[in-house]
């Protein structure tokens, strides 16, 4: 299966749609009910109110959204030549990672916000060794602000954007303000809208007060929560430890962009400390930078080993999704 995606023809990404459907099929077959959203932004609430509990439509939107996000990730990987071999692996493994746990298989605020996180990441990469990039730096903050209207923790990625930009170009204080102004523009425009209609208190509470805390973990007594979180923590740790080897035999430009991905993983990890009502879906934040590292890992493998390992992981994920049919749990 992996050999199909060893290409630089992004149009081949159309074949990733049945891949998404395969991984999401359990939500239709098992008729699973999406979990109650504990933390969301005003844009997420607006979308959920329009869907009015239509689970079927929500799942279809999640499938299409995940598929389109895989296109964006592949476009970034190909344009910036992040891999030694041109493949569509980053998008494929983004889909796989976003389906890794049954807790991820629904239209969540984080999944929606990831769209704008990916766009912001592409804009960060565009800033490498360019003199006039004020517009791009500003738009990085703007897209993260839009993502933050879906899920608060995307706002905190502004720190990841700042340290990421500092690894691509000489640190300039004015560029820090530019990216912050981009983020603030979203808050000012949205806040002004709610102020005009006399609902600024609702906006402030929903967007900030209800979403900021320290150590907001829930269900910590559930061992499954620790196992699931441990799986993602293991993947992130391995990605960071192997990041140096992924930079081998790559030009300086690619090395610096991989450094951006490493720093983003670290900042995403720190967001878990400050998000109120945190749940398993928060881990989807890791999947954008992590998908590139998993793609690097599989690209460096011998083809037959990579193919076998991918099929084993895919089979394991699908089997775990349907465990209730066999184990009743």
Task: Provide structural commentary.
The protein has one domain. The chain contains 15 helices and no strands.
Keywords:
15 helices
Category by helix and strand content: mainly alpha
**What does the radius of gyration come to?**
20 Å
Low-pLDDT stretches: none
Strand portion: under 5%
Helix content: 55-70%
Overall mean confidence score, pLDDT: 91
How would you summarize the topology of this molecule?
Elements: H1 16-29, H2 42-51, H3 55-79, H4 89-97, H5 109-125, H6 134-148, H7 153-156, H8 158-168, H9 173-196, H10 200-207, H11 223-246, H12 252-271, H13 287-299, H14 303-321, H15 323-326
Task: Provide a short characterization of the protein structure.
By secondary structure, the chain is mainly α. The protein has helices at 16-29, 42-51, 55-79, 89-97, 109-125, 134-148, 153-156, 158-168, 173-196, 200-207, 223-246, 252-271, 287-299, 303-321, 323-326.
């Amino acid at each position: 299966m992996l050999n199909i995606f060893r290409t630089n023809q992004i149009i081949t990404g159309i074949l990733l749609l049945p891949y998404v459907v395969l991984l999401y099929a359990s939500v239709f077959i098992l008729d699973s009910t999406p979990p109650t959203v504990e933390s969301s932004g005003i844009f997420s609430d607006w979308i959920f109110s329009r869907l009015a509990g239509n689970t079927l439509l929500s799942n279809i939107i999640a499938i299409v959204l995940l598929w389109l996000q895989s296109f964006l990730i592949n476009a970034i990987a190909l344009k910036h030549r992040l891999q030694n071999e041109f493949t569509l692996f980053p998008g494929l493994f983004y889909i796989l990672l976003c389906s890794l746990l049954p807790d991820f298989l629904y239209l969540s605020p984080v999944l929606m916000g990831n769209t704008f996180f990916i766009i912001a990441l592409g804009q960060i990469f565009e800033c490498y060794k360019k003199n006039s990039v004020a517009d791009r730096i500003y738009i990085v903050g703007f897209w993260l602000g839009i993502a933050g209207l879906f899920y608060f923790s995307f706002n905190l990625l502004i720190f990841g954007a700042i340290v990421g930009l500092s690894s691509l170009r000489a640190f300039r204080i004015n560029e820090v303000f530019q990216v912050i102004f981009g983020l603030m523009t979203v808050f000012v425009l949205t806040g002004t809208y709610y102020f005009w209609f006399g609902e600024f208190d609702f906006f402030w509470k929903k967007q900030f007060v209800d979403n900021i805390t320290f150590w907001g973990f829930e269900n910590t007594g559930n061992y499954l929560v620790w196992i699931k979180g441990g799986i993602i923590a293991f993947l992130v740790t391995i990605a960071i430890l192997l990041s140096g080897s992924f930079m081998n035999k790559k030009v300086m430009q690619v090395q610096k962009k991989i450094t951006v991905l490493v720093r983003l993983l670290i900042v995403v990890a720190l967001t878990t400390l400050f998000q109120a009502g945190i749940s398993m879906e928060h881990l989807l934040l890791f999947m954008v930078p992590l998908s590139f590292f998993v793609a690097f890992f599989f690209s460096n493998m011998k083809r037959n080993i990579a193919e076998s390992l991918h099929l084993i992981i895919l089979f394991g994920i699908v089997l775990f999704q349907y465990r209730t049919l066999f184990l009743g749990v």
